Predict the structure.
Amino acid sequence: MKEEARKRFAFVIYCLGVASLSLSIIWSGNLCRAEDKQTAAEKYKPASETPESLKGKQIFQAHHCASCHSSGTGGGCLGPPLLGVGARRSREYITARITDDKEQIEKFKNLYCAQELMPHPRLPKTLATPLVAYLMTLPEPAQGFKVGKHAGQLAIKSEPTKKTLPHQTSVALGKKLFYEKGCTACHSMFGAGGQFAPALDQVSNRLTREQISNRITQAELLALGPSFEYQERGTVMPPCDLTPSEIKEITDFLLSLTGKK
Ligand code: HEC
Ligand code: HEC
């Protein structure tokens, strides 16, 4: 009888082993498939050029969008690069971001973004529609983007600290700097901004003041060409020449978003 029970026990263990082995095979199969999906999703197909999109390209140039955005082999680095923007943002989002149509402005605030940090250029529908058509034709860089995270600490410790500003003044200055120093090229704030790095509106729930300010150093975003070389002027390197007081101001601003000091 005892022998019987031992055999039954061994059989149950054997069955459990087989079951978990087959489960793990199915699971790893699923993982592979998930990865396949990811690579398929990476191959973003931009819209084809049309007379309307070509008109949009001219509007892009005429309205100096490139002073803040790169869209190929040139452009600024204060806003997110627009190469392959259609892979990261919907047509509806882009439209709501750049038209001066009242309904669309409300839509942007309510649907996409609780709060606009700074006003973004907005154009009448007649110009915005072809402009969106143009943006949807922009392909992703051949090998995507390389995002270089913040590199070490800046050697800026020696600058004497300014006399301490009232907290609200410091927060307001930090908010302005956040835009002017190109943080939104990579980071989003309340849903608006770059999709290349963590969103920063809740960062003080994750990190301490010290951890945040230590992170505010040089970072880079590179558009990669066909054989992983950097594309001509594909380097998007926001100026991060920040002084200790500016770093403190930006940190004060980031902390203030969740009510911390
Ligand atoms: C003064 C700098 C500046 C100028 C000029 C500018 N932008 Fe922007 N743009 C930004 C910043 C910063 C962001 C990110 C934060 C935001 O969405 O408000 C942005 C976001 C965008 C986005 C959303 C991208 C994304 O991935 O979320 C689009 C699309 C866009 N801009 C298009 C344009 C177009 C088209 C023009 C020209 C009419 C233009 N921008 C002019 C700074 C600028
Ligand atoms: C070129 C892209 C890029 C730019 C521009 C950039 N960052 Fe970052 N940032 C990253 C990446 C990537 C990470 C995630 C890796 C890391 O923590 O270093 C990050 C992480 C952070 C974090 C930590 C977030 C977390 O949840 O752990 C903070 C805070 C931060 N950045 C602040 C800033 C500020 C402030 C600016 C503007 C002065 C800025 N960043 C500009 C790429 C960028």
Q: What stands out?
A: The longest strand covers residues 230-236. Confidence is low (pLDDT under 50) at residues 18-40. DSSP finds ten helices and five strands in the chain. Residues 147, 149-150, 181-183, 185-187, 196-198, 200, 203, 206-207, 212, 215-216, 219-221, 238, 240, 250 surround heme C (ligand 2) (CB under 6 Å).
